[in-house]
Amino acid sequence: MTPRLDMIGMVVSDMAASLAFYRRLGLDVPPGAEQQPHVEATLPGGLRIAWDTEEVVRSFDPAWTRPSGDGRRDLAFLCDSPAAVDALYAELTAAGHPGHLKPWDAFWGQRYAVVLDPDGCGVSLFAPSEPAPEAPADRAV
Q: In the Cβ-directed half-sphere of 87, how many Cα atoms lie within 13 Å?
């Protein structure tokens, strides 16, 4: 059997805050999961995402320590349009989540922004840039 990516795992310091953040991004997290030490959700296409509290990880890996610094993981969420990137960034930052990169038109053809989750990890929001409007075709008279 060839191994296949099945789950993305995240270690969180505050389960309730993390789940609330990712619900705002549209993930279907089970109701009442905030009090659980391990939570899973299935994403479209079957890939799973899981959250474990720091205590759970220390229960099987006593030497585990919280990473420091940023850039250790980055999840990216595709939005419907450039305007949707702007709106979601505004919604998340208004809810108290720190913005890391305000929405901008990236040179690689996307509207792109980064907001930080409750553990300080970057979460990218992006959409393909809108194509330039086509000039009307000249009509022969």
A: 9
CA 110-114-120 angle, 5° bins = 160
**Can you read off the two tokens belonging to residue 80?**
């419907």
Long-range residue pairs from 96-105, CB within 8 A, at least 24 positions apart, any chain: 97/21, 105/129
Cα-trace Rg, the chain: 19
Asked if 119 and 13 count as a contact pair (C-beta separation under 8 A), the reply is: yes
Q: Please, what are the averages of pLDDT over each run of 10 residues along the chain (141 residues)?
A: 84 95 94 93 92 91 81 81 96 96 92 91 89 56 43
Which residue blocks in the chain are alpha helix, DSSP H?
15-24, 54-60, 82-94
HSE-CB for 99 with a 13 A CA cutoff:
18
Question: How many residues are given for the chain?
Answer: 141
Strand partners, 99: 115
pLDDT of residue 2: 80
pLDDT score at 141: 43
